[in-house]
Design goal:
The chain is of the alpha/beta class. The protein is built from ten helices and 15 strands. The chain has a domain at 97-176: 2-Layer Sandwich (Dna Ligase, domain 1), CATH 3.30.1490. It has helices at residues 66-79, 108-119, 179-191, 202-210, 248-259, 263-273, 284-310, 329-336, 357-363, 368-379; strands spanning 17-23, 27-36, 39-49, 86-91, 96-104, 130-137, 169-178, 195-201, 217-223, 228-234, 237-244, 278-279, 282-283, 316-320, 341-343. The radius of gyration is 21 Å and the shape is globular. Adenosine-5'-triphosphate (ATP) binds at residues 24-27, 59, 92, 224-227, 247-249, 252, 267, 270-271, 274, 321-323, 325-326, 366.
């Protein structure tokens, strides 16, 4: 499912600049890249918190009305010196559905009839109201599979995990977006004068920016403000997707309660102190850790589920999203999670001045989605 919601495939000229726009619940991130002799070059980037545009504090998640969002995007484009209108916008995972199902093995034409019927079980609205797409998930370590034809059983994974394929069931990834959501994002683009090539669910954008070479199995954990989104990816395909209903905003709320300070102050303390330092005589780490423990235990559970389903272990976990930037989080994640952990560095995928490298790496986790969008625009140009 490389291009599920493409409306057009762009053919740009050599110096085309493209825009990736990630409308998160607590902040909007934007990046402008250009194609320079087949390389993705960073032109500019920027971020603005949504809170102040909806009478809330910085860091607070808010659903903005269309005029508030237009005002934010216009300020952001001006502040970041965005010069192109050619872009793509991400659709939040919470406004879409990504589900893996199992169906009996059958030829593809039969599957095409069966999938919408199966999908009804997961989609709470009439199927005619959603845009539905699906793709067969190949078994581990097998890149092509023709449905209805039994493949030669072959081993998967390393020696320890060898198994014979079960050919009686097909795993299928179903993706659905409500037509109203598509219309809403098309309207946002129109209001902000963004000439959108496509809309893409944020998870697909984050994957593109986070995974460089897809050997092995990677779990991407996006610690956003409201939720934490986890996908397990192998051979570029989502094998499992799970949303955890806790995010980095819950950490601010815990500090707010524990220290009896306003949200804005709690947000400031979270960013400055994190898990490593004390604030006065208060051990902020103790306030924060029930939330991080909850998130990591949910991540572990999902990883165990994947391992059981596919008899393969997860090779690495990549942390992205603003919550990944919490001071002291990485060592805790390394300790708690059942696989090696790294912080996402999506800016590695683009060329930028050397003096910016450290700064870009520090903010990188938050920009994974917007970078992934812009990279796809350049990739569809076939010159990057
Ligand atoms: N340096 C930092 N230390 C700790 N937390 C941070 C830091 N920077 C940002 N955050 C937190 O990360 C969260 C924002 O992350 P991100 O921008 O990925 O979320 P979002 O995309 O707005 O939310 P969602 O994906 O849930 O819609 C906020 O809760 C913010 O407080
Ligand atoms: Mg986000």
């Amino acid at each position: 499912m490389s291009n599920p919601f493409s409306k057009l495939s762009g053919l740009f000229n050599k110096s085309t600049s493209v825009l990736g726009v990630d409308i998160g619940s607590s902040s909007v991130k934007v990046i402008q890249l250009k194609n320079e002799n087949g390389r993705a070059v960073l032109e500019t980037y920027g971020e603005l918190a949504t809170g102040p545009y909806g009478d809330k504090a910085v860091g607070q998640a808010v659903t903005l009305a269309s005029d508030q969002l237009s005002a934010l995007l216009s300020d952001l484009f001006r502040e970041a010196n965005i010069t192109t209108k050619l872009g793509a916008i991400s659709i939040p995972l919470r406004s879409s559905l990504l589900v893996n199902i199992e169906v009996p093995d059958m030829p593809e034409d039969k599957l095409a009839t069966m999938i919408p019927i199966e999908a009804r079980k997961y989609i709470p609205v009439p199927i005619t109201e959603v845009m539905l797409d699906w793709s067969i998930i190949p078994e581990s370590n097998r890149s092509t599979y023709i449905p209805g034809q039994a493949p030669t059983p072959q081993p998967t994974g390393d020696d320890k995990n060898n198994q014979v394929l079960d050919v009686k069931k097909l795993k299928v990834l179903i993706v659905a977006i409500h037509n109203d959501t598509l219309r809403q994002y098309e309207q946002i683009a129109k209001d902000s004068k963004i000439d959108t090539e496509f809309l893409e669910i944020e998870t697909f954008s984050a994957m593109r920016a986070s995974i460089q070479s897809d050997f092995g199995v990677t779990a991407i954990v996006d610690l956003g403000a409201v939720t934490t989104k986890l996908v397990v990816v192998e051979q570029g395909i989502i094998r499992l997707s799970h949303t955890i209903n806790k995010g980095a905003q819950d950490i601010t709320l815990a500090i707010e309660r524990s220290l009896s300070v306003p949200f804005i102050k709690a947000e400031e303390i979270k960013r400055e102190v994190g898990l490593v330092e004390k604030f006065g005589d208060k051990d902020i780490g103790q306030t924060i850790s029930p939330i991080t423990e909850y998130i990591f235990s949910e991540v572990n559970q999902a990883m165990v589920e994947y391992q059981k389903d596919y008899s393969r272990s997860i090779d690495k976990v990549i942390l992205i999203g603003g919550g990944a930037m919490l001071k002291g989080l990485l060592p805790i994640a390394e300790e708690r999670l059942y696989a090696p952990v790294i912080l996402g560095t999506p800016f590695d995928r683009v060329e930028a001045p050397a003096f910016l490298k450290n700064a870009l790496n520090n903010i990188g986790p938050e920009f994974a989605v917007s970078i992934g969008l812009a990279l796809r625009l350049l990739q569809e140009d076939k010159r990057v």
